[in-house]
């Protein structure tokens, strides 16, 4: 998206909706290699060595904070968020093509899982068929609300919108606190919902979780950052963190859904590209194998099927 277009967007923001440059023109996903497509840079490669203390830090002194923020305008941040989401949607569209898969796990007659590699990254995907086409809107709404596949149906999955670049391109923050762990989790999600046609909708998300160590004295509302520095509970400057995440492409996980309505059913394809897995239980030195990922995906798949078939 060029600078001129960004300027136009801000004039007519209330009338415009973010649309990916590579949205689905039809149900086919085999045309993604057109020469006109934008370069597919691997945004995850720049995230490998991120440091949480670079993001979770006390606010800058007032005299320097405004000066730093002036370096990047809202248009710059919106342009970067749009660029990131364009790349996410491009990979979602490409990897949703099951013809590229090299192995499949058929769970039953309405769902199956497949794997492939893209840009040397493991890509997992599944497809579910719902026999009732009238569920199309309900399915989209529920998938949009969930933080990710594995929190589907969770009561704490909903978050708050802290950025709205366009009506359908937003940054959502979720906070999780657990007395049984030595840290709090702050999740930031860049999420877009794109209606490619009347019967095709894409839901794309890319996220990062930030862990903040907690001091022993929770009653006083004090926390310790990664380096042990005491922070007051309200001292984290979330607005600045969100901006840094976007401008520096700090997102880690990347995933999404393509929902298609047919005359007699709704098909849902889910794709995980470069999703961060814990080590394989059988081999701690290796990333999770296909069998581990399959076993992990079966649980939310069954929850989704049960929810929409009730």
From TrEMBL:
The keyword NADP does not apply. InterPro entries: PYST_A (IPR006486). Keywords: Signal. Residues 1-25 form the signal peptide. Residues 30-39 have a biased composition (Low complexity). Residues 30-66 are annotated as: Disordered. This is Fam-a protein. It comes from Plasmodium chabaudi chabaudi.
């Amino acid at each position: 998206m060029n600078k001129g277009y960004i300027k136009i967007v801000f004039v007519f923001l209330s009338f415009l909706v973010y649309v990916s440059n590579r949205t689905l023109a039809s149900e086919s996903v085999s045309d993604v290699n057109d020469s006109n497509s934008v370069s597919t840079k691997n945004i995850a490669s720049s995230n490998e060595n991120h440091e949480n203390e670079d993001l979770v830090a006390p606010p800058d002194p007032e005299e320097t904070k405004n000066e730093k923020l002036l370096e990047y305008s809202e248009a710059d941040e919106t342009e970067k968020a749009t660029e990131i989401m364009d790349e996410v949607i491009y990979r979602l569209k490409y990897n949703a093509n099951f013809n590229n898969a090299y192995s499949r796990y058929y769970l039953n007659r309405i769902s199956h899982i497949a794997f492939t590699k893209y840009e040397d990254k493991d890509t997992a995907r599944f497809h579910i068929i719902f026999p009732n086409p009238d569920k199309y809107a309900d399915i989209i709404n529920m998938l949009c609300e969930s933080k990710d596949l594995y929190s589907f149906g969770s009561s704490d999955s909903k978050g708050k919108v802290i950025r709205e670049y366009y009506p359908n391109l937003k940054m959502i923050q979720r906070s999780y606190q657990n007395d049984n762990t030595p840290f709090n989790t702050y999740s930031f999600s860049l999420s877009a919902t794109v209606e490619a046609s009347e019967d095709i909708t894409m839901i794309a998300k890319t996220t990062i979780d930030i862990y903040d160590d907690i001091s022993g004295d929770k009653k006083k509302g004090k926390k310790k950052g990664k380096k042990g520095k005491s922070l007051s509970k309200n001292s984290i400057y979330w607005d600045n963190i969100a901006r840094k995440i976007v401008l520096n492409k700090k997102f880690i996980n990347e995933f999404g859904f393509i929902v298609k309505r047919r005359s007699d059913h709704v098909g849902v394809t889910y794709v995980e590209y470069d999703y961060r897995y814990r080590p394989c239980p059988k081999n701690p030195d290796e990333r999770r194998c296909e069998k581990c990922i399959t076993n992990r995906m079966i649980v939310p798949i069954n929850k989704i099927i049960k929810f929409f078939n009730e």
